[in-house]
Amino acid sequence: MVSVDSAPGIKGTPPGGGLRRDVGLIGLMWASVGSIIGSGWLYGAEKAVVVAGPAAIISWIIGAVAIVLLALVHAELGGMFPVAGGTARYPHYAFGGLAGMSFGWFSWLQAATVAPIEVEAMIGYAGHWSWARGFQHTDGTLTAGGLVVAVFLMAVFVAVNFFGVRALAFTNSAATWWKIAVPLVAIFVIAAGNFHPGNFTSEGFAPFGAKGVLSAISSSGIIFALLGFEQAIQLAGESRDPKRDLPRATLGSVAIGAVIYVLLQLVFIAALPHTAFAHGWAKLHYDGISGPWAGLATLVGLGWLSAVLYLDAVISPGGTGLIYTTATSRVSFGLAKNGYLPKVFARTDARGVPWFGLIMSFVTGVVCFLPFPSWQELVGFITSASVLMYAGAPLAYGVFTERLPQRERPYRLPAGKVIAPLSFVVANFIIYWAGWDTLWRLGVAIVIGYLLLGGYAWYAVNAGLPDAPRLDWKAAQWLPVYLLGLGLISWQGGFGGQGHLGLWWDLLVIAAFSLVIYYWAKATASSTEDIERSIEEVVVTDAPAH
């Protein structure tokens, strides 16, 4: 890949090969929208209302605001640094090798585990058909036959990606038009004859209080559903005009996704017959609830819509799994270019596809079916990994505003000095709301990442490899305090922890802790010279590799 900073406007294949610049604005936006509208729309409304009651609408609005804050920061960074696997690289520029390796691992972990979630959703909805009922046990885990189907679907995602980014963009674009149309049809058709305003108050608007509203944001899949805007950024190295298109694609995809999801929650609550939740929202039940929207369509006499929704339950998650398989290989491409992974991850084939990264995304996806077999467990895990990945962007943004004030910014974030620390605080709220049971598992995954990437970095340094990463401990001195501190607060908090920190006090502690980390990270970040050197290395290290 040729750096956009060194050669603005280059399109197509750079001399000698590498990643191809074949993706336009619609392709970028649809990559993000296609990631946002996946299995989340099939399950999100039902899971959220069980946790929060009708106040789940507030949960969706809070979640949407949080994602918008994070997307605004990413929009500026994506325009400044249009490189493949961007979310894994911003902390590398700002804080050196140790932080770059850490957030790179968070980014890869998030991308690699989404495709298995989508496969789980496809198989779960397919249980509607008699031929697919043997694919899952009653607890949602995969049978031997289900595992074979899951592996086959992962292989399909990888196979499509091997046709190159142009074929991927075309396939995803076609799927995304469908993925937008079907939820909108469901919203308006179901609401037209089945909107009961009394449903919002008959069993209490917020029966589980503020804690239910906040828990729903992470644990029920709201944030998971809204995630995906970063896919345009991960494909920056293959964009025809990234400085113009990345901010538009990022913000546009969030707006589309947020509006659709809030409307879905409103209509889902209003359309239910009272008998479905007469014993309380926590005991919501009706025939076909295992496929919430399709079951609801059948319940209200819209059999034809139910058939469409069961078909969509294959297409929507499939499209999202497809694009996240792409993202996984691009993040590993970026990690290899920064020296955290062997160079084989940065090698591309004749179509400009990082082939080894794709193979490893398949292997990782298959492994994910084993320790996290149910959709709900996977969602809780991936939400935390995703937001931890996003948390690196506000930190990097704060550094760049001071260290690189003159650097070109195609999109400039209004009130960035306020929004950046605020978005970091919000990201940590979301991580905390996921609960201790999820966070300790995430901690184990982080340790595994340090063993894998840290082990390779140690080898590269000691072997004297020319691209060995510089692990800048001074610039990342805040990082272990951040990770351990967040875990400690979760352990002592009321979301699955010991309960020693009461509601609201825990959020105050998180906010104060987050601001301390934010300004500490800014104060100890890499110097302007080191940042510019890291950016310049992108021009050299992103040269084509075969």
Structural class: mainly alpha
The mean pLDDT is 83
Q: What profile does the largest beta sheet have?
A: none
What's the total helix number?
Answer: 21
Helix content: 55-70%
Radius of gyration: 22 Å
| Oligomeric state as shown | single chain
How far is it from the N-terminal to the C-terminal residue, by CA?
Answer: 11 Å
- Based on Cα principal axes, name the global outline: globular
Would you mind describing this structure in some detail?
Helix 5 (97-126) crosses helix 6 (144-161), helix 5 crosses helix 14 and helix 5 packs antiparallel against helix 15. Mean pLDDT is 83; it is low at 1-17 and 540-546. The chain is an all-alpha fold and 546 residues long. The protein is globular and about 65 Å long. The chain contains 21 helices and no strands. The longest helix has 35 residues, at 303-337.
List strands and helices in order, with pairings.
Elements: H1 25-36, H2 39-52, H3 56-80, H4 90-95, H5 97-126, H6 144-161, H7 165-193, H8 209-219, H9 222-226, H10 231-234, H11 242-271, H12 292-299, H13 303-337, H14 355-368, H15 375-390, H16 392-403, H17 416-433, H18 436-462, H19 479-492, H20 505-524, H21 528-541
